[in-house]
C-alpha cells in the first residue's frame, strides 16, 4: 500500500523556492516549509529526513529548487520549531517529531490527572497501547518520543520513572 | 428700459404689489409638488414592500433576483440592509450581509500573510464555497454571488474597517490592509495578471514603458507589503503576485 502524497498548492508557486527577503513574507514561507516537511514525512510514515536525499527541495514540474544554503536555512528553522531533531552533529539526518515532546508531556499529564493516575503507576506500554489511552495524542506513539515526553515531566517533578523487566514494562509514577 | 407687453411679468406684479401673493402661490406650488413627490415615493415604498412580501423566497434564494430587488430599493432611499423598520428586518437581509461580511473578513485575514492583503473577490467566493460555508437568509440557505460579496465589503467599508475594492483590469480585488495602492501599483499587478505569471523589471519597462526606477519603486513597495514574492531563477528576478496567481489557477 503506497500512500501518494498530495502536494499543497504553494509547492507549485515558484517563489516558494527562493528565500524571501521581506521578513513577514519569509515568516509565512518558513511556516509553509515546516508544514510541508511535517505532513510529507508523517503521511508517508518516514521517520528520518536525510537532508541530501530529500525530494522536497526540488520541484521539477516548475523547474525550481532550493540551493544548498537555502536548504540549511529551512532545516535549521524546522529543527528550531521543535518538530525535528538532528541525530548527530553532522546535521545530515533529522528525526521527525511530528508531535512535539512538550505537547505530548502536557497531554500525558492531563490524561493522568483525568484518569486517576496521580500517585499511581502505569507502564510505558500502557501509555502508548493501553485501553485507557484510546483517542489520546500519545496513543501509538513511538517509544523514544514517549520517553522524551516523560523526561520533560520528570524534570518538572510531575513523574518519576523506574525500571521494569523490559523496557516497555518500565513504570511511571505520576505526582 | 424695455417693458414687456402683456400682463403678468414680475415687474408688473411688483408694481401692483402682488409680490407677496405671488410668492405665496409659488410656495404653495412647491409644497404641493413636494407633497405629491413624497406621496409617490410612499406609494412606491408600499408597492416595494408588497413585492418583497410576495417574492421573499426568490429574494432569498436567487442572487440575481435579489440584486434586481435591491437596485429597485436604492433610488427610493430604501436600504433593506440597514433599515430599522420592522418590515425590512423580516427579510433579514441586514443579518445575511452582516454574516457574509464577517466571513469575507475572516477569509481575508486568514490569507493575508500569503498575499499581503489583496485578493480577488472570485477567490474569496471560491474559498467560502470550498469551505462549505452557508448562510441563512430568511430561513432559506442561499447561494451568494460576487455581487453579494461586493455589498458585504461595502458594509465593511462603511464600518471604517479599511476594506475596499480595487479594480485590476477587469478583476475586482478586495484590499484589507491600509496600504496606499496608487495607479502604478495597480498597473503592475494587472501586467502580472495579463502575463499570467512572474514579471521582471525589464518586462514591466518594456511593456508599460516606464523608467527602471519607477518600476523598481512600485515593485519594491509591493514586495515590502507582502503582495509580491520574489523568484530568483537563472540570474533573473521574477516578481509573482499570489492574488493574481491564484486566479490563473482558479479552482
Topology:
The complex is a heterodimer of chains A (175) and B (251).
Chain A: H1 23-43, E1 48-50, E2 58-59, E3 64-65, H2 68-80, E4 84-86, E5 93-96, H3 101-114, E6 121-123, H4 124-129, H5 143-155, E7 159-162, E8 171-174
Antiparallel strand pairs in A: 1-5, 2-3, 4-5, 6-8, 7-8
Helix pairs in contact in A: 3-5
Chain B: H1 10-16, H2 19-54, H3 56-61, H4 63-73, H5 86-91, H6 93-115, E1 118-120, H7 121-131, E2 135-137, E3 140-142, H8 146-158, E4 164-168, E5 171-175, H9 183-195, H10 201-208, H11 212-224, E6 229-233, E7 236-240, H12 242-248
Antiparallel strand pairs in B: 1-5, 2-3, 4-5, 6-7
Helix pairs in contact in B: 6-7, 6-8, 9-12, 10-11
Distance between the termini of chain B: 79 Å
Shape assignment of chain A: elongated
Low confidence ranges of chain A: none
Please provide the count of β strands of chain B: 7
Shape of chain B: elongated
Level of helix content of chain A? 25-40%
Strand neighbour order, sheet with most strands of chain A: 1-5-4
What is the number of E strands of chain A? 8
Q: Strand content of the residues of chain B, in percent?
A: 5-15%
Number of helices of chain A: 5
State which percent range the strand residues of chain A make up: 5-15%
Q: How many strands, which pairing sense, and closed or not: the largest β-sheet of chain B?
A: 3 strands, antiparallel
Mean pLDDT of chain B: 83
| End-to-end gap of chain A | 43 Å
Oligomer: heterodimer
Q: Structural class per helix/strand content of chain A?
A: alpha+beta
If helices are DSSP runs of H or I spanning 4 or more residues, what is the number of helices of chain B?
12
Rg over alpha carbons of chain A? 19 Å
Q: Work out the radius of gyration of chain B.
A: 27 Å
**Mean of all residue-level pLDDT scores of chain A:** 89
Amino acid at each position: 500500500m503506497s500512500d501518494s502524497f498530495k502536494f499543497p498548492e504553494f509547492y507549485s508557486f515558484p517563489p516558494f523556492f527562493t528565500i524571501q527577503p521581506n521578513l513577514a513574507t519569509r515568516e509565512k514561507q518558513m511556516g509553509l516549509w515546516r508544514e510541508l516537511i511535517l505532513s510529507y514525512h508523517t503521511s508517508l510514515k518516514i521517520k528520518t529526513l536525510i537532508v541530501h536525499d530529500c525530494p522536497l527541495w526540488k520541484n521539477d514540474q516548475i523547474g525550481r529548487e532550493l540551493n544548498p544554503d537555502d536548504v540549511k536555512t529551512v532545516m535549521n528553522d524546522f529543527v528550531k520549531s521543535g518538530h525535528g531533531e538532528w541525530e548527530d552533529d553532522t546535521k545530515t539526518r533529522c528525526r521527525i517529531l511530528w508531535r512535539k515532546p512538550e505537547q505530548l508531556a502536557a497531554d500525558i499529564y492531563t490524561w493522568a490527572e483525568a484518569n486517576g493516575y496521580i500517585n499511581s503507576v502505569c507502564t510505558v506500554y500502557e501509555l502508548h497501547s493501553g485501553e485507557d489511552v484510546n483517542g489520546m495524542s500519545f496513543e501509538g506513539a513511538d517509544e523514544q518520543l514517549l520517553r522524551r515526553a516523560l523526561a520533560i515531566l520528570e524534570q518538572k517533578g510531575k513523574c518519576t520513572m523506574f525500571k521494569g523487566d523490559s523496557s516497555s514494562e518500565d513504570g511511571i509514577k505520576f505526582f | 428700459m424695455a417693458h414687456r407687453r402683456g400682463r403678468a411679468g414680475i415687474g408688473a406684479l411688483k408694481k401692483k404689489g402682488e409680490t407677496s401673493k405671488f410668492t405665496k402661490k409659488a410656495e404653495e406650488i412647491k409644497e404641493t409638488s413636494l407633497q405629491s413627490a413624497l406621496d409617490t415615493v410612499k406609494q412606491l415604498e408600499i408597492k416595494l414592500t408588497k413585492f418583497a412580501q410576495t417574492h421573499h423566497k426568490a429574494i432569498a434564494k436567487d442572487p440575481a433576483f435579489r440584486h434586481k430587488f435591491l437596485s429597485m430599493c436604492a433610488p427610493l432611499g430604501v436600504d433593506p440592509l440597514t433599515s430599522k423598520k420592522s418590515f425590512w428586518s423580516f427579510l433579514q437581509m441586514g443579518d445575511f450581509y452582516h454574516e457574509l461580511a464577517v466571513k469575507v473578513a475572516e477569509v481575508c485575514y486568514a490569507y493575508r500573510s500569503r498575499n499581503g492583503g489583496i485578493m480577488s473577490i472570485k477567490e474569496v467566493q471560491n474559498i467560502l464555497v470550498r469551505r462549505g460555508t452557508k448562510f441563512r437568509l430568511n430561513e432559506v440557505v442561499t447561494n451568494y454571488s460576487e455581487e453579494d460579496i461586493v455589498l458585504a465589503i461595502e458594509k465593511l467599508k462603511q464600518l471604517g474597517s479599511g476594506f475596499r475594492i480595487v479594480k485590476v483590469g477587469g478583476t475586482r480585488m478586495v484590499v484589507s490592509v491600509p496600504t496606499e495602492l496608487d495607479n502604478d501599483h495597480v498597473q503592475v499587478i494587472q501586467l502580472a495578471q495579463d502575463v499570467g505569471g512572474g514579471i521582471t523589471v525589464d518586462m514591466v519597462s518594456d511593456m508599460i514603458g516606464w523608467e527602471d526606477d519607477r518600476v523598481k519603486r512600485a515593485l519594491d513597495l509591493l514586495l515590502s507589503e507582502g503582495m509580491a514574492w520574489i523568484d530568483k531563477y537563472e540570474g533573473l528576478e521574477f516578481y509573482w503576485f499570489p492574488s493574481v496567481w491564484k486566479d490563473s489557477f482558479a479552482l
